[in-house]
Write a structure and sequence with these properties.
single chain, Rossmann fold, 3 domains, 5-stranded parallel beta sheet, Xanthine dehydrogenase accessory factor, XdhC_CoxI, XdhC_Rossmann_dom, MoCofactor_Util/Proc
């Protein structure tokens, strides 16, 4: 990893911004990239660094956003159309890129996702159990002062009292995606009755917090709460990230289109080449396909 990319990765990790680190593992001449070249791909599809030309970037962008969404590393093999054999590597994802001028490539895509940040309010046995279990389960557990500062992934109110309506309202206004209130169904309903909630806000509040696993002890209740947060994150309903949260939730598929010239799948973004034909947007992998399509349309 180059010094510049390394510094940028450190900044993103410190800011809890998800990204994918792409590293060229192998490249055949005449590919423009070389083994060791690397780049960062952000959740909006932007690429910082170099892993090949524009056609290679299109394939990397699509695969990287999928890796970020799934949380799984991918070895991407990019082959030009009609290329000769490339040595097999178990577990590789193969993409035939019709626009590639030549030179097969292998690129390792590693998602770097922040740990879910959970703020906990209260000093109860359940709050203590949340801290005991949260760390080993991969959560970044921190104490809150009754309201969520910043925008953590989740907030758990385990104080069994206090000004819970105010804490919930503050968390909603701060953009917290999941708020768990530890309370009986009756008390939880009473707390929520003190709030004016729209449908979207109500959907972000869970009370009684936690999955119904028949929990009785403090540790079991804490386990059920963390399990519900895991469920929300894995389903894509809860984005992981705070001040640097992605513009698009990780579970949401990016907008994709098919280049009508080469047949490649491209991620639609502000810099994706496109034309407006008969009032419809047509997207392309690069300027070459766009210009060819434009010429064909002009000759009709």
């Amino acid at each position: 990893m180059t010094h510049t990319i390394g510094d940028r990765a450190g900044e993103l990790l410190a800011g809890r911004v998800p990204f994918v680190h792409a590293t060229v593992v192998r490249a055949q001449v005449p590919a423009s990239a070389r083994a060791g070249d690397d780049a960062i791909i952000l959740a909006d599809g932007s690429i910082e660094g170099f892993v090949g030309g524009q056609c290679t970037e299109s394939s990397v962008r699509v695969a990287a956003l999928g890796a970020m969404r799934d949380g799984e590393s991918v070895l991407l093999r990019v082959l030009p159309e009609g290329s000769g054999e490339f040595p097999e590597t178990p577990g590789a994802r193969v993409v035939v890129n019709p626009c590639l001028s030549g030179g097969a490539m292998e690129i390792f895509l590693q998602p770097r996702l922040p740990r879910p940040l959970v703020h906990v309010v209260g000093q109860s046995p359940i709050a203590a159990a949340l801290f005991d279990l949260g760390g080993p389960l991969g959560f970044d557990m921190r104490r809150a002062d009754g309201a969520a500062s910043g925008a953590p992934t989740a907030l758990v109110l385990a104080s069994h009292g206090g000004d819970e309506p105010a804490a919930i309202r503050a968390a909603l206004d701060a953009g917290v995606g999941w708020i768990g209130l530890v309370a009986s169904p009756r008390r939880g309903a009473g707390v929520l009755s003190e709030l004016t909630l729209d449908e979207g806000e109500r959907a972000r509040i869970s009370t009684p917090a936690g999955l119904d696993i028949g929990a009785r002890t403090a540790a079991e209740i804490a386990l059920s709460i963390l399990a519900e947060i895991v469920q929300e994150v894995r389903s894509g309903r809860l984005a992981v990230g705070s001040t640097g949260a992605p513009e698009r939730p990780l579970g949401e598929r990016p907008v994709e289109a098919v280049d009508p010239v080469c047949g490649m799948t491209v991620v639609v973004g502000p810099d994706t080449p496109h034309l407006v034909v008969d009032g419809e947007d047509v997207w392309f992998c690069g300027p070459g396909c766009r210009d060819r399509y434009a010429a064909e349309q002009a000759g009709r």
